[in-house]
Amino acid sequence: MLPFQQHIVSELLEEPTGGLVVLSSGLPLHKIISSLLLLHSPSQGTLLILSATDTQKASISLSLPDAAPTEIAGDSPSHHRLALYSSGQAFFITPRILIVDLLTSKIPTSRIAGIVILNAHKLSETCTEAFIVRLLRSYNRDAYVRAFTDRPHAMLSGFAKAERIMKCLFIRKLHLWPRFQVYVSQDLEKHPPDVIDVRVPLSSHMRGIQKAVIEAMDACLKELRKTNKVDVEDLTVENGLFKSFDEIVYRQLDPIWHTIGRRTKQLVSDLRTLRKLLDYLVRYDAVTYLKYLDTLRVSEGVRSVWIFADSSNKIFEFAKKRVYQLVLSDGRKMNVEAKNPANKRRRLKDSKKKAKEDAGVPGSGGEAKAGVLTTGVILDEILEEPPKWKVLREVLEEVQEERQRQILEEQDVLMVEDIDDSGIVLVACKDERSCMQLEDFLVKGSQKVMRAEWEKYLLGKTDLKALKTRNKKKSQEPKGFGILNGVTPVGPSENAEAAIISKLEHDALIAAASKISSLAEENCVEGDSVSNTNKRGQGRGRGRANGQSQKGKDEVTKSKIMMESSDNDKFENLRPNDEVKICENNSKDVSDNLETLQFKPIPPVQFYAMDSDRRILDVMKPSTIVVYHPDMSFVREIEVYKAENPLKKLKVYFLFYEDSTEVQKFEASIRRENGAFESLIRQKSLMMIPVDQDGRSIRLTASNEPQSLISQNLVTRKAGGRKLIEKEMQVIVDVREFMSSLPNVLHQKGMRIIPVTLEVGDYVLSPLICVERKSISDLFSSFASGRLYNQVETMSRYYRIPVLLIEFSQDKSFSFQSASEIGDDVSPTSIISKLSLLVMHFPRLRLVWSRSLHATADIFASLKANQDEPDESKAMRVGVPTEDGVVEDDVRAENYNTTAVELLRRLPGVTDSNYRAIMDGCNSLAELALVPVEKLAELMGGQKAARTLRDFLDAKCPTML
Known about the structure:
Blueprint: H1 3-14, E1 18-23, H2 29-39, E2 46-50, H3 54-63, E3 70-71, H4 78-85, E4 90-92, H5 95-103, E5 112-117, H6 128-139, E6 144-149, H7 161-169, E7 174-177, H8 182-189, E8 194-200, H9 204-225, H10 244-253, H11 262-283, H12 286-299, H13 312-321, E9 324-328, H14 341-359, E10 377-381, H15 387-409, E11 425-429, H16 432-444, H17 446-471, H18 494-536, H19 542-569, H20 576-597, E12 605-609, H21 617-620, E13 624-627, H22 632-644, E14 651-657, H23 661-685, H24 709-716, E15 730-734, H25 742-748, E16 752-756, E17 763-764, E18 769-775, H26 776-785, H27 787-798, E19 801-807, H28 831-841, E20 846-850, H29 853-863, H30 872-877, H31 891-895, H32 898-905, H33 915-921, H34 925-928, H35 933-940, H36 943-954
Parallel strand pairs: 1-6, 1-7, 2-4, 2-5, 3-4, 5-6, 8-14, 11-12, 11-13, 13-14, 15-16, 18-19, 19-20
Antiparallel strand pairs: 9-10, 15-17, 17-18
């Protein structure tokens, strides 16, 4: 461990109640957790680790090969979990399993030493982790709580988030460890690596795309500022480069998201799309980028705002110029930039005439040429390779030359720092796709890789054309003229040439795609014939040679597949020797191909995808690292790796696109993190922490809110101020509902939570009241899938008072949609119409509207007033059939006749407002038929309705002849 890591661990151990640790991104958080686990003794009690991701679990387990924590599964028997809780070991556990075991008293809380919570930036006052800590503090006041996060910028969302997290976890200490902290900077800068900054210039087309995207983003930001509903200080192009920019905008618009217009929503979506366009420009090749633009044009279409900006046309044009250009059949470029419409039409007419001559149209005097379209326009493939590819190969060749020179100079000298040198060059990319493509580039060369991507692009065009042709059903006879026939006449306007050029371009792409497709089919046929000949054993002469060449191709293909599959399986059983072996095989294949491509040799290369978040430096132990896509977190990992291996020679190459948003984003990420820590330091200096925040004064069952003075005076009027014994309220909660925060709020209100598995409903408040809780997003999805209808139907069957709780978020608008969007007619897409039809179909259903979680708790308390407490055993049996197939406690069979009620509601004159009064006045349908008109008028609320029903009941049926 480095000295600053030891300082962090020692500070945590000195505080008996725990603390909140905020680290810089990229610092080894998993090693600090591993050190705390190593220092943990079974005699202290059991240690539980909450909210850890799969990657964090793997990193901690890899750091502790002999004492790795195991995971407590929810499907294990209760007695088995009880034994694990009492063992004194460290375990990973999910919050939902732990809170259910705490509420059901299946945990010996006295044997719990403490809780370690990861990703603390995701916590809030109503989260399940806060519920767990409050229960644990009430039972065991000596248990500690230690929370960790390496996302400092996420700790600034909202007002005083760090202080609120500390309050809900009942901890008093905040530990801040930024990169500029004295201990951290001293340890990381004592033995820095040898860093080489390589600036790669952008191509002219890439610069044009970047400038156009930034202009489109700036235009969208200006339009968003006009709404006057967001803070304009955060709306800058620099903030728009980060993924968290979407969170900033969404957080500001979330309270009024249902009331803002479609244009504002589309602007937010467009900003996210433009941010991806900037990111993909420097990450992917030209063909992949063009393919992504094509999908955007189809998927977003006329809905998007940025597509109609002035700069959007430049984005598409520059992206095409990186891949191909249109030329005439004689090799001349198409001149489409003239401004005079008359000249345009003249040139277009001449090009058509020239095309007819080249294509051999009858009467033109020309002959058909092979591979030339009837339009006389063909594609000239550009296939611009990313500028970083060439620089990457030059860097690898330079590394290999330097190593060869060192071997010659130091043959007889054994360097201490090179004893554990594996000789591997680690190339770090953003994602797995970039790693695979760069590996293909080093093996095959840039031309073959770009050609393969181009063929995939064209084959996609062929498949799309076949799909459109198959789905197109057009009559042979014309239905009309012009627009009526589905054809828009093009007049002599300035847009006419653009439409024709687009048509020529489309036809040229389809022709090239058809040619590629036919060549692929011919190769498949030849391959099948050769394979069949080899199977029969009749190959002679040239056939035998073809068979041998085909065998060689199969071996090369097999080796390539093994190389690609090694990337997917290299982390399954991660051992240094295996990794070196894989890299040696890769480098051997690369060297074999380099001889044929006449390239210089390169060293063994291992690719690493930073999105996987795997700690590979300690396993691979590379001596040279090439950071292909710069990332701040990975830079910190490199610094820590070099500080832990001070005697090792480490050279790091950073590949930046010069004057690009890639450099701007990297520098802005460092400034943003430093600013976040400076803000947290100021908050820490002004933080007001109560004395009892350690949780020692917490009460278990009573509400933490102080009693008002008026209520205290009212109590003193009864029995000389003697406090009345209040009955404890109980709420039966489905275990799946612990993913939400409502059980936590109900417990804060002093209610006893009983977690069980319910077949009907989410909450049972009394033997008569069952509640199905729906958030806004869940309500819309339940209506779309039809699940809500079945849930309400089962509640109406087994409970007298079924309740549908519609719960809004506290910081959102208390409405589904704006008042202007609510129409007078029933609409199948309107949520109001769907709710109205649901209530009409289930008259006993009650809708409860709640503004927030705390309002829901107050509503539950008022609903439970003057009601009996629910029975846990009966609530669990509701809706569960027995072995005989009979459903126990079927309220429908015991209390009312559903068929008779449905028949009554369909009689003339019976409405939703009077059918309940008829049921109270008549015990059966037979009795209803004998009731006089005067009494029916009293029950039905009018003489007209009573006469309508009486005439219907007294009407004679026609005689059957």
